[in-house]
Structures are given as C-alpha cells and as structure tokens.
Amino acid sequence: MGEIRLFVSNSMRGVMDELVPKFRKSAGHEISISYDPAKVMMERIRKGESADLAILGGSAIEDLGKTGKIAAGSRRAISSCGVGVAVGAGARKPDIGTVDAFKRALLAVKSIAYTEQGASGMYFAKLIDDLGIGDAVRAKAVRRPGGLVGELVAAGDAELAVQQIPELMAVPGIQFVGPFPKEVQMITRSWAGIFADAREPAAAKSFLEFLLTPDSARVIKAKGHEPAQGQG
C-alpha cells in the first residue's frame, strides 16, 4: 500500500499522535506527517509543495479549494478549538477567569511564550494591544515562529505559555490553566481536504472518513478540540 502524506496544523498534533497508529494498524497504510502553522503551510503549498491530505485551521482549506489545490467536494470540518494558558507543572495556576484577572496574570509573570506565525500567536499579539498591555508583554515575550511553545515552559525558558488549547495539552511537563475569557476568546475551526494532485486519493479519503467516526471524535475531544463530526 502507498504512503499517505499529510500536511497538518500544529493544533492537531496530539490527535494525530493517537489516531495515526490506530489507523495504520487497522488499515495497513503508512502515513507521513509534516506539521506547521497554517500560515507557513499555505506558503509552502503556494511554492509548489503538495501532499495527499491537508488538515488546517481557519479558511486555509477553503482558500486552497478556490485555487484548485484541493479537490472539489473533498472539504470536511474536523474540529474547533480555542486559545488558552499553561504554566509549569507544579506552579501556581493564575486566575484568568475574567478579562481583568487575565490582564493581571499576564502582567504578573516574568516571561510569556507565544508563536510569531501561528494563529494563536498572531491573535495574541493584537489582543495585548487591544487590552492596553502590548508593550509590557512584548518586553518579556519569548517567541518562536511556530511549534509547541509549551515546550519553552517545560524547559524553564518561559513562565507562561499562550497557544491553542490542544497544542498546550500535547506538551508534557506543563499544566493547562484554562481557556481565555469568553469575551476575548478566539475559536478556530480545523478543516480537511484532499489535494487535487494527490498520489493516494483513495487512501487519503479512507483516513479522512476514519477521522469522522465516533471513536475518533472521542479522541479529538480528549485532546482539547470540539469534534465537528464531519458536519460543515
């Protein structure tokens, strides 16, 4: 059987870590996965890279469909998730239950990790300005382009991490504090689509259908997402 090539947003890493081995065992297909923020992945695709199936957040799959990169009719909603906060294992969890408490928590810590090109990091960079604390937070920011910024907290390089909830939950050695207050929350929906030039379109479709089963939905939920059950 051919290898299924996946392009996947970082927020789905924890889901893939659990579901891919199950699919491999049941279907016999090998799967290779490349992870990046949706913005970075879109640039890679625009420069000519391709795969069999993409799972990306926001409007990425829809946009790829408009340019003919994703096969017509193959787009499916997978899940949605919000942005949250994490601190080191054993550290005191700050109160972030209200917008004011959230602001105080951000100002109280010595360092804050977030991405530069990930959806959550770009949103957070604008949010701190909207909250009037942009300069103070940027002065103690620990940033990198993408990846799991919770790893910076686990390594002791930052005191607090801000990222999409599933990405925080995928990192050992940290503890999830909670989601952003609803007044300042950002919900991102993840979609999947099969590439128009996929080498293994039938296998990619079988994996996509596997992601939409009730068993997969339970894993998706346990990893910090709200499963879409294929509706959308």
List the helices and strands and how they pair.
Layout: E1 4-8, H1 13-27, E2 31-35, H2 38-46, E3 53-57, H3 60-66, E4 76-81, E5 83-88, H4 99-108, E6 112-115, H5 119-130, H6 134-138, E7 141-144, H7 150-154, E8 160-164, H8 165-169, E9 174-179, E10 188-194, H9 201-211, H10 214-222, E11 226-227
Parallel strand pairs: 1-2, 1-3, 6-7, 6-8
Antiparallel strand pairs: 3-10, 4-10, 4-11, 5-8, 5-9
The portion of residues forming beta strands comes to 15-25%
Q: Determine the mean pLDDT.
A: 95
Name the structural class. alpha/beta
Total number of beta strands: 11
Query: Spans with pLDDT under 50 lasting ≥5 residues?
Result: none
Largest sheet: 6 strands, mixed
Shape: elongated
Biggest sheet, spatial arrangement of strands: 2-1-3-10-4-11
Could you give the distance between the termini? 30 Å
Helix-residue proportion: 25-40%
Helical stretch tally = 10
Radius of gyration: 18 Å
Secondary-structure element pattern, one letter each:
EHEHEHEEHEHHEHEHEEHHE
Describe the fold and architecture.
The longest helix has 15 residues, at 13-27. With 232 residues, the chain is an alpha/beta fold. The chain contains 10 helices and 11 strands. The strands form 2 sheets. A 6-stranded mixed beta sheet has the order 2-1-3-10-4-11, sandwiched between helices. A 5-stranded mixed beta sheet has the order 7-6-8-5-9. The radius of gyration is 18 Å and the shape is elongated.
